[in-house]
Amino acid sequence: MDTRKNPLENGLERTLFASRWLMAPMYLGLSVAMLMLTIVFLRELAYYVPQMMELTAEKTILAVLTLIDLTLAANLLTIVLFSGYENFVSKMDIGDTVDRADWMGTVDFAGLKMKLIASIIAISGIHLLKRFMEIGQASADAVFGDRELMWLVVIHMVFVLSGVFMALMDWLSAKAKKK
């Protein structure tokens, strides 16, 4: 019995394996998205800094929450960019520089999934908190009435429950592998 692979099968497998590089432009696109987030962050900062002496405590908190929201989105993008590239395209050969994040090269798909849902929950929570702080403001009440606020809470709870169920599934899967 010949255990060598058929040349057609070997060529197909090599082609499929090489096709992972089709994702590289997507990761480059995420780098452009990072630039977009940075520009929006700087624009928001430039808008609020000149007003800082006149801002009320509530408006200051809303401004800070907006900046935190953008930063969390950028953190999430960074995790997806690096972990996704290393898990699905190629290992990054950048050496052991002091700038290399500790988690790089160690976040597998399950870890990426948990970081993703945790970031989404944090971003959703900040967005919800911003809306709660705007209750009673005529301009915000015109956009976010009781119905919209209720849906924001429901959607946030769906994210939270999804995170809990994903963590439970990972825990059950790890427990089953140990047996």
Automatic annotation (TrEMBL):
Database matches in InterPro entries: UPF0114, UPF0114_bac
Superkingdom of this protein's organism: Bacteria
Pfam families assigned to the protein according to its UniProt record, in alphabetical order: UPF0114
UniProt keyword Transmembrane helix, yes or no: yes
Location relative to the cell: Cell membrane
Alphabetical UniProt keywords: Cell membrane, Membrane, Transmembrane, Transmembrane helix
Residues spanning the membrane: 21-41, 61-82, 110-129, 149-172
Keyword Cell membrane on entry: yes
Chief localisation class: membrane
Membrane topology: Multi-pass membrane protein
HAMAP family: UPF0114 (MF_00143)
Family annotation (PANTHER family): UPF0114 PROTEIN YQHA (PTHR38596:SF1)
NCBIfam families assigned to the protein according to its UniProt record, in alphabetical order: HI0507
Record family assignment: Belongs to the UPF0114 family.
Protein name, per record: UPF0114 protein VK792_01260
Organism: Mesobacterium hydrothermale
